[in-house]
Amino acid sequence: MANQLLEIKDLDVYYGDVQILRSVSMHVEEGTIVAIVGANGAGKTTLLKTISGLIKSRQGEILLAGEPLHTLGPKGIVDKGVIQVPEGRRLFSSLTIYENLRLGAYIPRSRPLFNQSLEKVFTLFPILKDRQNQKAGSLSGGEQQMLAIARAVMAQPRLLMLDEPSLGLSPILVRTIFQLITTLNEHKTTILLVEQNIHQTLKIAHHAFVLRIGRIVMDGTGSELLANDNIWKDYIGARQVKG
Amino acid sequence: MHFIQALVNGILFGTTYGIAAIGLSLIFGTMRIIFLAQGTFIVFFAYVVYFLFTLLGIDPYIALVIVIPIALLLGWLMYYSIFKEAAALEDRNISLLLAVGLMYLVENIMLVAWTADPRSIVTPYTGLVFRPFEIVIPFTKLIALIIALVSTAGVYFFLKKTLIGTAVRAASEDMVSTTLMGINPNFVNAVAFAIGIGLAGISGVAFASIFPFDPGYGFTFAIKALIALALGGIGNVAGALLGGILLGVIESLASFYVGGGWADAISYGVFILVLSLRPQGITGKALKKA
């Protein structure tokens, strides 16, 4: 396989005695957008948290460019450039936008590039530039999601993981966010995207994995899965209204 | 005139509660515990200052130069040696119990080593008093006020202007998200502890140069700092200092108008009143409801 940035092999993850992920194997090729889709409770967020080291796996391997990640703690994983935008954004709402961005570039590999990253982020998100001294908590939902992504971009990620970035946003903003993900990818960022907005996700994903009750049940290119009626019926539930 | 004098006394002494409260506030921010041993460490550093003065002849204010680095280092080491494992647990009670245990351990070691006899520092300037507009301002209390204002400003600028300070504020808000920035939770906790104990060192200097003290005074002092914190609102440096000043003023007015014995009862009464009517403190913004 060509140039895998992230490889996951036979991953088993438990919450206490309950097994959440069962022998999950997947991969993310350098420079692509890879999506993980599936119903609520399929284990998508757990998978991202395990990659970030917030949850420890019981079995299996996670490799970044061939080097083990699963042996590192959350800080070690972030230091390698694997950056997660968590579900619900989790901004520092009492800090200003500028301060949030500054912490985004905290790790040693990105700190020296702060000014350069800031310029890039302000080009991508002009609204953040105008409001950089405002508290993050004063932003609207869509702006907060943009700040959450911008904060992750500040880290100069090798792998950017987005957990439900369109959650709770209006249809127009959802489109903006997906456009933005495509733009980031065109700027050479490799993206692992977890989404419930399946239609839009499969349209932009180079490759996608379908997760169902902790197992990968199918994978293929975005357009293959989009064309496959079974995935809606069998694995995800009712077909979504085209979003 | 008496009213103004009582007010001035309260303000002058309240600032010492205030810096202790800032220490509590920082440790609470990242660790989510009330560090009840804070007052005992203030007393401990008062002893350090006392011995530096009586044995080596080092002036209490010069001693700041020695006490501050020792206190910062002690806070840092104390976190990594005692609190690190407990801090990783979801149950905050373990860390709180450790703080209580530490308080009694240090207090009892001080009792054995240095006895329960009250100590005080008498310097050539201990009795020095200024009388602007016939208000009595003791020199040592004035210096305590200045020390408190300077340390508050120092902590404020550290938190606002430095990257590590920003990380400490971020951790006070959301430790998981802070971890996802690549910031080690132990590092921010240790920074908060170092500054918290550093402030205990500074309070110790201010305290030792004003009042007699003994090992048992620590717990009372921690509770006073807690009241100051509650009055000012948790998570707010300037609020904690103001809370301390407010407590100082309440105590001073209470002992002047009602009688010395009532000062503590009234300040605890105000504590209950404020927390029950305005749980976010007087200066604090509304807290999230459960």
The chain-level mean pLDDT of chain B equals 89
Q: Treating each run of at least 4 consecutive H or I residues as one helix, how many helices of chain A?
A: 10
Estimated helix fraction of chain A: 25-40%
Return Rg of chain B in Å. Answer: 19 Å
- Cα-atom radius of gyration of chain A: 17 Å
H/E series of chain B: HHHHEEHHHHHHH
- State the helix count of chain B: 11
Helix and strand run of chain A: EEEHEEHEHHHHEHEHEEHH
- Strand composition percent of chain B: under 5%
Query: How many DSSP E strands of chain B?
Result: 2
The shape of chain B, in one word, is globular
Structural class of chain A: alpha/beta
- Quaternary assembly: heterodimer
- Based on Cα principal axes, name the global outline of chain A: globular
Strand order of the largest sheet of chain B: 1-2
Describe this structure as you would to a colleague:
The complex is a heterodimer of chains A (243) and B (290). With 243 residues, chain A is an alpha/beta fold. Chain A contains 10 helices and 10 strands. Chain A has a 6-stranded mixed beta sheet with strand order 6-7-8-3-9-10, with helices on both faces. A 4-stranded antiparallel beta sheet of chain A has the order 2-1-4-5, with helices on one face. In chain A, strand 9 and strand 10 form a beta hairpin. The radius of gyration of chain A is 17 Å and the shape is globular. In chain B, strands 1-2 form a two-stranded antiparallel ribbon. The termini of chain B are far apart. The model of chain B has no long low-confidence stretch (mean pLDDT 89). The longest helix of chain B is centred in the N-terminal third of the chain and has 30 residues. With 290 residues, chain B is mainly alpha-helical. Chain B has 11 helices and 2 strands; from the N terminus they run ααααββααααααα. The radius of gyration of chain B is 19 Å and the shape is globular. In chain B, helix 1 packs across helix 6 and helix 2 runs antiparallel to helix 3. Classes of the chains: A alpha/beta (243), B mainly alpha (290).
